[in-house]
């Protein structure tokens, strides 16, 4: 069936297009045109002057809707994915936090099945750890140094893992990054104490991305009478190193979000939720849980650290625009175009262009999601427009 979305401001790679239309057919964008004249035989959707933007790409998300991907059941995956789709995440890379090999393999099996589903939003798996610095692991546990036999056996058996995060200063981390690079997998630094020399060597080895930038990594610091650059300053100095920020308005203040945007720019900055199972859900942590929800964010119960967010992708865009005063077009690009490119799926999604997947969102003037299409299929729970 042919669908035509008219009467909105369309975000294209060339900028905003007013009074144009987007034509959808068979799950793909047939055309983005500057005419909103009705096409014969098309179902017309009136965007009522709202924003028509590309669907968001969730590249760091642990769960939602009351379920965590670490549960490693199809029900958990489907529930969490559905929760985030309602908020505009039309492409999702489920994140598996620090886990033993058996659990990683189980998640791989489920992910492969979901990737094979027609018109499904899952395009790969994101693994965080277990190769993490114990001093910086925060709420994560069962961490260890990179195990070559382990990660090679996992990656030789599947193509579904598209990103893997580790601490670059650990023994064997550089070999790990080189191996990931040889497989076309994004290698990201995280939970690290690395300083400039470490980051420079890590980047050369293949660590080209910094996960949850500013979080779980030191900034400028002092040891005795001397001062040292932290991971943060080191990443800023690596011009081509990309970053992601948890732009929920809690993990980082708006001033830091503006600083990252200013120094790294749209093409090297992604917006991520780092959302836990409590996102888009009424479920709360158990009374004896290590995690509490307070001030709209997940924290360790002893208040020693943040533990993840309860944000959805639309929250990130609103935060960047309404609190950090960043142009809407740039905020959207950091939630769609840039992560799509970094995750290797920009040929399919991330921008509104002819031939790409019909992953489309309509947002109103308050930047609330009013309608979502994933692969041309309207997400019913996200539709309040018609």
TrEMBL record:
Enzyme class, first EC level, given as a word: hydrolase
EC number(s): the record gives 3.5.1.25
Which CDD domains does the record associate with it?
A: NagA
* Molecular function via GO: N-acetylglucosamine-6-phosphate deacetylase activity
Alphabetized, the UniProt keywords read: Carbohydrate metabolism, Hydrolase, Metal-binding
Recorded hits in Pfam families, A to Z, give: Amidohydro_1
Q: Which InterPro entries does this chain map to?
A: Amidohydro-rel (IPR006680), GlcNAc_6-P_deAcase (IPR003764), Metal-dep_hydrolase_composite (IPR011059), Metal_Hydrolase (IPR032466)
Q: Where is the Amidohydrolase-related domain?
A: 51-379
Gene3D superfamilies this protein is in?
Answer: Metal-dependent hydrolases, Urease, subunit C, domain 1
The family assignment reads: Belongs to the metallo-dependent hydrolases superfamily. NagA family.
Please identify the protein, giving its name as recorded: N-acetylglucosamine-6-phosphate deacetylase
Q: Which organism is it from?
A: Parabacteroides hominis
Per the record, the gene is: nagA
């Amino acid at each position: 069936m042919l669908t035509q979305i008219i009467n909105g401001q369309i975000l294209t790679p060339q900028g905003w297009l007013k009074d144009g239309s987007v034509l959808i057919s068979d799950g793909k964008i047939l055309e983005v045109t500057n005419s909103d004249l009705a096409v014969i035989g098309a179902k017309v959707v009136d965007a009522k002057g709202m924003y028509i933007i590309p669907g968001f790409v969730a590249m760091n998300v642990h769960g939602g809707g009351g379920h965590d991907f670490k549960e490693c059941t199809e029900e958990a995956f489907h529930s969490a994915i559905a929760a985030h789709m309602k908020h505009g995440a039309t492409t999702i890379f489920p994140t598996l936090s620090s886990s033993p090999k058996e659990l990683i393999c189980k998640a791989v099996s489920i992910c492969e099945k979901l990737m094979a589903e027609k018109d499904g939003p899952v395009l790969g798996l994101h693994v965080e750890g277990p190769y993490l610095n114990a001093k910086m692991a925060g709420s994560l546990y069962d961490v260890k140094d990179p195990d070559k036999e382990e990660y090679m056996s996992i990656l030789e058996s599947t193509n579904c893992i598209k990103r893997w995060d580790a601490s670059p200063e650990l023994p064997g981390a550089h070999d790990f990054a080189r191996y990931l690079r040889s497989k076309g997998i994004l290698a990201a630094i995280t939970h690290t104490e690395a300083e400039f020399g470490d980051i420079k060597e890590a980047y050369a080895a293949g660590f080209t991305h910094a996960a949850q930038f500013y979080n779980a990594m030191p900034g400028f610091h002092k040891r005795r009478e001397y001062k040292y650059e932290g991971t943060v300053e080191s990443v800023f100095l690596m011009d081509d190193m990309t970053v992601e920020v948890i732009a929920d308005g809690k993990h980082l203040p708006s001033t830091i979000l503006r600083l990252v945007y200013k120094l790294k720019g749209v093409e090297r900055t992604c917006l991520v939720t780092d959302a836990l199972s409590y996102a888009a859900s009424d479920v709360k942590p158990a009374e004896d849980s290590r995690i509490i929800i307070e001030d709209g964010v997940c924290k360790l119960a002893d208040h020693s650290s943040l533990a993840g967010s309860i944000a959805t992708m639309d929250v990130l865009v609103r935060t960047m625009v309404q609190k950090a005063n960043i142009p809407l077009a740039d905020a959207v690009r950091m939630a769609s175009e840039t992560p799509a490119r970094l995750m290797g799926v920009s040929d399919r999604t991330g921008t509104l262009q002819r031939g790409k997947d019909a992953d489309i969102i309509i947002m109103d003037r308050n930047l609330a999601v009013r309608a979502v299409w994933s692969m041309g299929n309207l997400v019913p729970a996200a539709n309040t427009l018609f």
